Amino acid sequence: MSTPNPRRGSMLLLLPIAAIVAVLAALFAWVGGWFGNHQLTPQKMMDFAQASGKQQPGFRRAHSKGVCFAGTFAAAPGAATLSKARAFSQPSIPVIGRFSASSNNPYTPDGASPVRGMAVQLKTNDGQEWRIAMNSFPFFAASTPQAFQAMNEAGKPDPATGKPDPEKMKALLAAHPEIAAFMAWAKSAPKSDSLGNTRFNGVNAFRLTNAQGEQRMVRWSMRPRLPVVALTPEQLKTADPDFLMKDLDRRLANGPLVWDLVAQIAAPGDPVTDPSKAWPDSRPEATIGTLTMVHAEPQATGPCRDLNFDPLILPDGIAGSDDPVLRARSAAYSVSFNRREREIAEGKSAYPVNPHGSAR
């Protein structure tokens, strides 16, 4: 048995902060216009994402490492009082989903990933789709695409030192204190030891409309039925590079994994267009459905691989808010998807042929 390398372990513990900035820099591009900088185009933003990390052709430009899963979604009693979406009246809906790590290197060790993601696709029997994209952080790093871009620029390593310019970072945090709050969370937040007990949050707000025309602004989260168990620093030091994926297989061999979809309902005055501001815990909540996961398989040949989990693909009864970061996410996913599809069509993809075919 090899002896654990303490230096490797300490480096892994330091990865979350550096990786948060580097990875988030790859997540979004504002396709609808400029970032307040007329030298920056959406194409250049995606070029930046591709230049960071160890991007592989055919893979997502961010959250490249992942695993597909399948299961069902069942609406909770009373969910239809909040939204007329068919998902809340159909008894059971098949689900295709994906867990992901935050790096744009598809071979990054699971222990090096500071953020985990969950995305799901629900297709109801009336032909409508609902795609949900969530992450394990409780709020987003920046309040606007412009602030996000400023963070990207400040976090870019200086070629002379290999590290971000501290003066640029200091100025950024002074101008955008929400970014400092996010970095503080990333530094101190415990990591769960399993995807199966991880909570995933939708930090953007959406509008639910019921059959009576009543509207409510909500944010949702997937909350695991399993109790959260924190990964210890010692476990992180010696963790298998794919321990999250292997743990998932072990757990599913013993039965399904279950999450409750919970909607937090905004009160008047709550920030519905600023994902960097969490709503108070005192806001009313409603469980609106249950996700039951029964199967997982590698993304290389799984049905989630070629699926674009655009958070603005929504059914009647659910609408996106005016949050500009939400719009940016949708635009970025589209750019990433189109580039991946082109690489696959040109035979440049690092993936094998997908037996499920291309899924939109």
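Above is the first protein from milestone M3; the second protein from the same milestone is given next.
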Amino acid sequence: MTVPTPPTPRGLRRVALASLVGTAIEWYDFFIYGTAAVLVFAPQFFPGSSDLAGTLAAFSTLAVGFLARPLGGALMGHFGDLVGRKSMLVLSLLLMGSATFAIGLLPTYADIGVWAPILLVVLRFLQGFGVGGEWGGAVLLAVENAPPGKRGFYGSFPQMGVPAGVILSNSVFLLILATVGKQGFIDWAWRLPFLGSIVLVAAGMLIRAKIGETPEFAETRDQGLRRNPLLTVVRDNPRQLLLAGGTFLANNAIGYVMIVYMLSYGTKTLKLSQNTMLTLVLIASAVWLVTLPAFSALSDRVGRRPVFLGGGLVLLAWSIPFFLLLDTKTIPLMVVAVVITALGLSATYGPQAALFAELFDADVRYSGASLGYQLGAIFGGGFAPFIAAWLQGTTGSSLWVGAYLTALSLISFVCITVLRGRERSTVEATPQLV
């Protein structure tokens, strides 16, 4: 039997870089779609609709990506447990990059009629499928290579890919808007972020090609893998899967409301400029990026659940004040709104990688972690921008959106209070979950 060799310090740095860069590229691809859905897809792919109907239609295509994510997570998680983490990470990046590049070439409704939104939905589905398999593999790459006692910190690197992807995507949109103006952006320049992603994907592929399998996967492979890890984890771990998904509802919904819906709300309801709203998202994402590893490292010392619970309380208490401050249209107060939200997101997202890995045995861990994550994503962030837009449009009040997010925060808070790790997990779980 092969004895797994722990990675060297240089190897650890390479793993951390591969997990961060790869996920940042994947999330850049995923998020530029969300930003474009707010700024350009309604008139380009759903013309003739009312402003609200066009926005809802664009957000509906956004949700399609979330519907595909559990499928990608299930299938790639299954094969990631069978043939290895690395191959699925390469496949997910290739699939996401190809779909994103194709969106940049897509004809609009004026060019090919109803086929334009149909093809947009198909490509969004492929994006969702790719990113569905990305998270679990990137997380396990980091966590399973991490030294004992630092799994939370190393697990934060793929998590940082989310705010890094937001910063990269919004910075690109701000640069293009400043260069070509609003009309030039709507007419043609919106395609540039999608087409340019092919360069990032190529760089990510080169980085990931240099990494190997994790020591824990190598060990389970030598001992004999389960023939059907997906079926096994669903049959043996239904409670962990459902509770893991529940812990992620609030974080994902509030994150997408801030990243995607807030752009629409700020420009169409509050009548603020696109640059102002994109800048607010950038500020929130920068705070999220910087504080995320700090909360993750803290979870190595005090446990995952205490950090999660603290962040959950912030999200629970802040969902309604968040919109009250946005509604003032006073920039300093709006900055306060997004910064405090970002702190709550960091505390409930940073330790998540290690927490989800600690719930499942190594031979079903890719399947289990991916499914738990994507269940929370589809019922949390998948429909959040659509529901938020519908609530605001039908009631005329942002407080109903805040109430919706408060309800999800309560569900997530309850889930994390009852979630426990598995002592049989080969990842050191018990000392850190209690």
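Note on the second protein: The two ends are 34 Å apart (CA to CA).
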